[in-house]
Design a protein that fits this description.
single chain, 276 residues, alpha/beta, TIM Barrel, eight-stranded parallel beta barrel, two-stranded antiparallel sheet, 12 helices, 10 strands, 41% helix, EC 4.1.1.23, OMPdecase_type-2, OMPdeCOase_dom
Length: 276
Amino acid sequence: MTKQQLFEQIQKKRSFLCVGLDSSLDKIPKHLLKYENPILEFNKQIIDATKDLCVAYKPNTAFYECYGKKGWETLIETWKYIPKDIFSIADAKRGDIGNTSAMYAETFFNAQSSEMSFDSVTVAPYMGSDSVTPFLTFKDKWVILLALTSNTGHSDFQLQEIGGDKLFEKVLKTSQKWANDEQMMYVVGATRGSAFADVRKLAPNHFLLVPGIGAQGGDLQEVCKYGLNSQCGLLINSSRGIIYAGQGEDFAEKAREEALKLKKEMERILVGAELV
């Protein structure tokens, strides 16, 4: 999916919502445990309930890898079930070098070998360009680079100054030598708020994947105030706040209700910014 196609989906749906599929056996509704593959059934019902409200889905691969062979099969089947006009993100946070990085790229982008071909994958930049460039060899695929995250320990490294720049600013500046805003996005945590202004000074045209809305306390209005650009430029992720909104047999309906609340707020923001 190209940048323009993604923006067209945002305009069509009047939404820039990404639903995170952090699906865990100990958190999904108990009545689903009777199914042969409870997590896959959970994911399918969540997707069916929200696919007209969101423009992206983001399975966090750790929630599948932990279940071994069956987990990988569930990830593959979940990718297959995501409608192909919806942007798919493998939230894998890979970050190795050389052949290892190339194999990770094959894992998430080459359906002939792995049975999965996500539109994008999250990558950690700490090891530099050779940990990222193997992913960029795949045409029409995206790297979503960790820049400024929403976890408590982000300040241990990301805010440390190096030659006048904070480390996350160095990441933004250096990585733009590897790819442009048609193939690279950045992860910027919603709980950083006004820091989006600093990010936009260095990456005005890139899409930003923004976790932390909802359960983690991020404020959508503040994020959009500083982070919105002429093509929206934001994918706002909500995981637990949507997928675990209900624990009964109506869990998918409850998830839809929460997704709809965010979608309506996003629509008002897009209209106010004259983007739709």
